[in-house]
Amino acid sequence: MDRRISFTSGLLGLLLVSGQALADPPERHEFTLENGLHVVVSEDRRAPVVTTHLLIKVGSSHEYPGQSGSSHALEHLLYRGSAKTAPGEFSKVIERLGGTDNAYTNRDFTVHHQTLPSERLAVALELSADLLKGADLSDSEFVREIEAVRSERRERVDENPTARLDEQLQAIAYPQSSYRTPVIGWMSDLERMHNNELQAWYRTWYAPNNATLIIVGDVQLDAVRREVEQYFAGFTRQILPHTKLPLQSAATGPRQVTVYDAFSRPRLVMAFNVPTYATAESATDVHALRLLDALLGKGLSARLNSRLERQQALLFSPKVSYGALARGDTLFEISASINTAQPKPLADLQAAIWAQLQAIKSTPPSAAELARARALLLAENTFFQDSLSGQASDIAAMLGSGLPASQLDNDQSNLEGVTPVQVQQAASDYFTAERLAVAYLQAKEADDE
């Protein structure tokens, strides 16, 4: 386990439970204890394995100015001793039983997860309950862990030009939203962070009525309910702080930032403020944005890959990113680097990408192109659902965004219901200069080009 890289949500990994494909959706159940702990159980019996994800609804978007990085730093410190484990012992227990564990923090929530043989579910539940209410959070371990977090930030952000570019982009793209706060925290905040702040953060947010326990695998509902009640029913419901959605979809005008680095390949990121399933007035807009993501950037036949990279050789490695699951408004991001064999100014890359967006706004995609985009999205989701961790993390993403666990149950029919004209309309509504934030990564001397 390496929690020192866990502030990025892509580090979950997929544990494929067998070669057998998931033909039918697992049977899913939900119940809530009297203290407010929400429990989701998904029965998948293809292998004698179970994964448990303890979802805590607190992330960087909940943090106050001057306390950035609290959720992520606390995630680290929780494994450094508790009522039942010595520092570092948590992972050793899981490993001895043939399992794996990790944790991650993002803008909206924190997840602590373990995968074990299903006969060892009780161990995962006991340890998860210990995380929720039994952490020591000692001063000596805080000193050790906060230095690890500062080192992580230096290595993964401060010394990484691409990561600094992304951090600066988030800061200008969300002038009114708490999503501008970096998950790992600003270094100035990490340098003055005190253990009593993390202790207060733990007492405030780690409560049964602010948590969801997600259990996926070879389990039976009645047995799970008994064991969950055994380990979690004794905790007391708490009064939680009032929270507001991180809204930033409204057009605020064009914004731009430049990060200079003489040794990096020049890079461009264009980010448009857009809604998510949690914030959109119409879910059709979100369906359409997801299809635009695939149409522009997924697969070799996607427009940016086929037209700008292969046919025109104008740019290198174009990427499109849109995450529809978040509790606040988000960004539709398009990035690319220059083609060093035929280098062009970043402004030329930006103009070429704009031209591709204007083409969609002028002419709806064909039915065949839209069908390809839809098939790619559904195939991606199907592959992710073929693992226990994939299923559990999908549920965590939905619940952590304030959405029901059933949000994507009808995904295929929802995507099939989107027309080419609706995709065109979404492009016209959201791909505008007023919604755009641009970030350049380039050498200092390129500033005058």
TrEMBL record:
**Entry-linked Pfam families:** Peptidase_M16 (PF00675), Peptidase_M16_C (PF05193)
Q: Hey, which family's this protein in? A: Belongs to the peptidase M16 family.
Q: Where is the Peptidase M16 N-terminal domain?
A: 40-183
A single GO BP term for this record reads: proteolysis
Q: Which domain of life is it from?
A: Bacteria
Q: Which UniProt keywords apply?
A: Hydrolase, Metalloprotease, Protease, Signal, Zinc
Name the residues that span the membrane. Answer: none
* Signal peptide (from-to): 1-23
PANTHER family found in the cross-reference section:
NARDILYSIN, PROTEIN YHJJ
Domain Peptidase M16 C-terminal: from-to ranges: 196-377
Indicate what this protein is called per its UniProt record: Insulinase family protein
Q: Which GO terms describe its molecular function?
A: metal ion binding; metallopeptidase activity
